[in-house]
Amino acid sequence: MPVMGRDRYVDFLRAWAILLVVLGHWLITGLVRDPDGEISAPELLATVPWTQWLTMGFQVMPLFFLAGGYAAGGSWTRARAAGGTAAGWVGQRAVRLLLPAGVYSGLVLVAVGVCSVVGVDPFTLALVGWAMAMQFWFLPVYLLLSALTPGMHALHRRWGARVPAGMGAVALLIGVLDVAMDVPYVGALNYVLVWGVVYQLGFCWRDGLLGGSRPVPVGLALGGGVGFAALVGLGPFPVSLILVTGQDPSNTNPPSAAMLAWGVAQVGLCLLVAPAARRVLEQERVWHAVRVTGAASMTLYLWHMLPVLVIAAAFYLTGLAPQPAFGSAAWWGWRVPWLLVLGVVLVGVVRVLWPLERRLAALDLGARPDASGLGPTWPLWAGLGLSVWALTYFAGHGFAHGGRFPVWPAVALGVGTVLVACRWGTAGRAAGKGRTGLRGEGALEEAAS
């Protein structure tokens, strides 16, 4: 039977995924100060190849898409029952992500502009701009899946688990065209299809199509695990589940058949441990920690690389940081204080930004007379298109590609966010009638509830 109401385990999956993303990025980020005083960031996964195996533990974004699909299915069902429109529902969820992302991007872009004017070295500026946007790949994909949710859920209501199975088959076909036949651009479709399979499995999970009997999660875990092992051991794919420069084919750019198999395996494992995890989450201290993490999820996700820049300026530019050989045993030993110091700085960043996130999460742009959805919806879809393009650009190029200020992506994100926010003001209240939950939760948690 599906779990009705707010499922603590779903909130835990989101919080756990965010924390591992933060820790993973910090772990693989290594700074080196050369004799001239300049700082570089060698790519750990390429420099120390055995570390690519570690990505099997840190690549947990399938958990977030699974939890997102689970929660989105319930949210859209409630909105439909309350008479909400697809445009209102999509706009409301999109603006909860775009406002914090827009504020973050705006502040970073202002800093990039100032640094450009005062003559900061273009290479350094490009490196910092890349570091501050390395997590952005998730946002355009999640926005697209949110926009497609009403249609995807309609397919789910009609065909159930056959939908993710069919999407997986199409993703495999596209993977063959991309890798074996080198058909240009077709692989980009797998950003939506591969992650969409896991998102769609979230619908199935909520409606009891996956967890009703133990053989189903066992089959998903074993089938996905064996498929991943075969595709890596016998097939053309690398073990790394995070992008490694020069690695072709890649498991993430675009998502590969191996990534699809890994995602399916993670879904099965999540279902298997769900009963035990839910018992642990009944403890109020544990549940409180999950809620606190979830409430700050967007701040954690967006701002977690800022502490790296702070520590680089305070300890590496000044020469105070120890400099063991990159990837050596001593270097790994210094990872412990590195992570601890970054964690302390991030806690401070979250405390400073927490009031802003609460205001953004609680922002009410006001309902208009066409809140029923009778008004034009083109501003919403145009805004989403501009925002997705801009976020995709930043994810691929950073905030200062080539050491230059990205004028058109910055304009596109600003205009897109305004268009989505204005459209949400006219349609979001209708969709909001179907919402349950608390205002002031984290934007990622809010967008997936």
Automatic annotation (TrEMBL):
It holds the Pfam family Acyl_transf_3. One of its GO terms (molecular function) is acyltransferase activity, transferring groups other than amino-acyl groups. It comes from the Bacteria. The chain crosses the membrane at residues 12-33, 53-76, 97-119, 125-147, 159-177, 183-204, 216-237, 257-277, 298-318, 338-356, 377-395, 407-426. Keywords: Acyltransferase, Membrane, Transferase, Transmembrane, Transmembrane helix. Residues 8-350 form the Acyltransferase domain. InterPro entries: Acyl_transf_3_dom (IPR002656). This is Acyltransferase. The lineage of its organism: Bacteria, Bacillati, Actinomycetota, Actinomycetes, Kitasatosporales.
